[in-house]
Amino acid sequence: MLDLDLESPGLSSALLPEDRRPFYGITDWLVEDLVNNADVVFENMVATSALSHNGEILVVPAHGANPGEYIAKLGRVWMPKLDSDGKRESWSDRLSRLLDSLETRWSPDVTLIDSRAGIDEVASACITELSASTILLFAVDGDQTWSGYRVLFQHWNKTGVVRDIRERLQIVGAMIPEVGMEEYFDGLLERAWDIFSEELYDEVPAGEISGEDSVWSYDQFEGSDPTLMLILIQMFLMLS
Description:
This protein is 38% helix and 11% strand. Helix 7 packs parallel to helix 9. The strands form four sheets. A three-stranded parallel beta sheet has the order 7-8-9, covered by helices on one side. A two-stranded parallel ribbon has the order 1-6. It folds into two domains: 116 residues, no CATH class; 108 residues. It is built from nine helices and nine strands. By secondary structure, the protein is of the alpha/beta class.
């Protein structure tokens, strides 16, 4: 699990108490990589969570046990890297290289990345540039959630990446209330379908059926769209 919410690294503290934190974290690697010194921190940026059960939960925190000048480091992590020939490597490409190195070194069964909320470059890179097999979009049924996702979906349409992304999306119902759960869930599902049908689904030509291979569109009550088979989550992470 990688904590890429670098401005608000809550996952790190949730999964790793202070006595388990590695010496370095993702921020350290990104900064040291700029000066070709990433190998020094690489082996000491992964720790095992005490929540591990029937296997290991390996955590790469945003920062290590001693964050040092963390604010100053954050100002440099997004910088591109220039090699000796002047070739520019974007920070997202550097992040992808880190991910490849971690997976090669530790061979995880599953890699989970916690990106920051909202619309920004970090979230964008995690969704569009790291080849994630599943993209979880957390949703609270409110105008702020849906207006934000509408802006994001419209941007994907304009940039032409929507067809590469949409089948990997999964809406997650977060913070579902215990009282009135079914009504809240139905409303969440309806609002999610509305925005998908308006921004992500294909128009269905006359004579064709929604859900066919050539047309990516689903009726609201079909129950066959994998992206709208909502996951109900009472807590962000529940391990047993």
